Amino acid sequence: MAYHLCLSVQTKRKTINYIEVPIMALVRYKRPNYRHLSKSVNELMDEFFEPINAQITNNFTPRVDVRENEQEFEFLLELPGVRKEDIQIELEEDVLNVSGERKALVETKETNVHRMEQFYGSFQRSFHLPQGLDKESIVAQYQDGILRLTIKKHEKAIKKQIEIH
What we know:
Elements: E1 3-10, E2 15-23, H1 35-57, E3 64-68, E4 72-78, E5 87-92, E6 95-102, E7 121-128, E8 139-143, E9 146-152
Antiparallel strand pairs: 1-2, 3-4, 4-9, 5-6, 6-7, 8-9
């Protein structure tokens, strides 16, 4: 439905008695969706300050995969750039602790660093082991930056299929 406004206008040369001016109808206000903009700004800020945060914290947390099959538990830790000699593995009661240090490369004075995203420093991960594991059977292997810890299950904890007679 359109509304019109009628006016009488007088100029020096002539008088115009009738002018129709359309009036805009009311439209429901829709709030703009700025979520995508907010998310983009947050990602930009995180990307901008991430190298500074990395330098301030001076440590990193290695990623880990924990797997289980019928005979054993397996922990796979990503430790790129960490030497085998710089890793310590300890078991205290039911807690498995893996710690170590990733040492920074020696920089020369004529090198200009424009961006630094790699983490250096000490790390530690702790895992509460479930019941039914043979804690004396822990085997640690380190190859290509992956630390593999394997812990066998006790024979009592292994699921057995019972045959029906």
